[in-house]
Amino acid sequence: MSEKTMQGKTLFVSGGTRGIGKAIVYAFAAKGCDVAFTYASSADTANEIIADVEARFGVKCRAYLLNILEPLTYKDVYKLFDEDFSRLDYFISNAIISGRAVVGGFAPFMRLKPKGLSNIWTATVEAFVVGAQEAAKRMEMVGGGSIISMSSTGNLVYTPNYAGHGTNKAAVETMVRYAAAELGEKNIRVNAVSGGPIDTDALKAFPNYEEVKAEVVKRSPLSRMGDATDLTGACLFLCENGSSWLTGQTIVIDGGTSFQ
């Protein structure tokens, strides 16, 4: 049984209905943390997670509809959050886009198009900025907090068709460092968690999924693909007291693949 070391605290994570985001919701709830998350389309899935989390861990859990391609609507989501929760301690920017929204952004270099690239920028960098700004306002009222942007090693290691995403992951990691430099005086720490290819629905949507998976297993000294739960430990660490002097950094969790 997990120790309830985060009782009385609240996490807000974007994109919490599947993959990494869902794993984060459960990991923090297991520590006694109240949890809010966003979803893109399925209210039914969100409500199922809420019911399961509250029943299993005895914490408060709520979900809000968010279109990550319209980052300013974060402000409306946070107003709903304020009606449900009295404090915010941790914010994790995790939501990503896929499908039609990334057409022209997920492609070989010579087929990249401004619209797809712009959408990835909006969902990755602009959404982090607005989400973190709103979070910081609330964290300041409780004496500080921790902000995390999820990233990926696609900005360190060549991954076919990943130029649009990889470039924007590099950009958001830079934004994290700037945010850390300016929010430290408010006792708010800002870091990134960069994952290697993780076996999620988002990765399975890649047309070359099997090829990517085989290459990751081959490259990793641990001889396996990453799982969504492999990233939750770093997120917990960055929100707990053991990392109280750690800010402006990117923690890479990639099964050793970026060294190969």
From TrEMBL:
<comment type="similarity">
    <text>Belongs to the short-chain dehydrogenases/reductases (SDR) family.</text>
</comment>
<protein>
    <submittedName>
        <fullName>7-alpha-hydroxysteroid dehydrogenase</fullName>
        <ecNumber>1.1.1.159</ecNumber>
    </submittedName>
</protein>
<dbReference type="InterPro" id="IPR002347">
    <property type="entry name" value="SDR_fam"/>
</dbReference>
<dbReference type="InterPro" id="IPR036291">
    <property type="entry name" value="NAD(P)-bd_dom_sf"/>
</dbReference>
<dbReference type="Pfam" id="PF13561">
    <property type="entry name" value="adh_short_C2"/>
</dbReference>
<dbReference type="GO" id="GO:0008709">
    <property type="term" value="F:cholate 7-alpha-dehydrogenase (NAD+) activity"/>
</dbReference>
<keyword id="KW-0560">Oxidoreductase</keyword>
